[in-house]
Amino acid sequence: MGFLILMLTGRHLRIAAALALPLITGCAHGPTAGDPFEAANRRVFAFNEQVDSHFLAPVARGYRRFVPGPVRRGVSNAFANLRDLGGFVNASLQGNLKGAAGNGSRVAINSTAGVFGLFDVASSLGIEGYRTDFGHTLATWGVDRGPYLVLPLLGPATARSGAGAVVDIGMQQQWPLPGGFGVTAAEAVDTRAALLAADSMVSGDRYLFVREAYLQYRANLVGESHAIDSFAEDEDSYDWGD
What is the per-residue pLDDT for 17? Predict the structure, then answer.
């Protein structure tokens, strides 16, 4: 699955992958209007797949095997708390007061009552988060999506979401946390571990599968698609290996 995990949260990657299943059957090989750099993208994709296969996936399997489930959930919650903090900033930049208030409340509650985000107290209180990132912010500012790209290590992107990801990662490095980029690497391992059970969902041409899953995810995120996220309500009925 490559380094798609650095761009998506585990939960929504699984949904996007499920949405992509019927989409890839209609995809033709060769460059498309939205993927003019397919030949180069495929080479980068193959490199990322090798890095994932030989490094990230084995580390993630070891993490799942040796770290107890409650500890992994606490780590995942802590990273989700950081994403909510980034979401608060992006919602504010978008002028979305409701989203900013929701994410700000989640960060305040989970960082205190939730012991630095280890426990998701806010969700138990019915406070929902607003899913967003700087690529989404750029979309609200009228920036075009641009062509589909596959970035070394970072994985699938569009010109807009790729630029946004760089800003989001740089923003995360400004939080008053020890570890710097080590925090980003740890988050990658934690998210990859959550996706191990979803590897079997990828079928056929892996490049096309990931491309369509990613573009569907981004279109839904920024409101550029009318596709119904029918998998969201049913997700909890599946066993994803937690």
Answer: 46
CA dihedral 22, 27, 33, 35 (to 10 degrees): 90
Considering only CA atoms, which of 221, 44, 11, 48 is closest in space to residue 135? 221
Over residues 193-235, the pLDDT tens digits come to: 888 877 777 778 999 999 998 999 999 998 876 433 333 333 3
User: Which residue intervals of the chain are DSSP H helices?
Assistant: 10-23, 38-51, 57-66, 69-94, 97-112, 121-124, 134-140, 159-172, 181-194, 206-221, 231-234
Domain boundaries, given as residue ranges, for the chain? 2-25+36-225
Map residue 32 onto helix, strand or coil.
strand
107: alpha, beta or left? (left if phi > 0; alpha if psi -120 to 50): alpha
Q: What is this structure's pTM?
A: 0.77
pLDDT digits over 135-187, tens only? 999 999 999 999 999 999 889 999 999 999 989 988 877 776 655 556 678 88
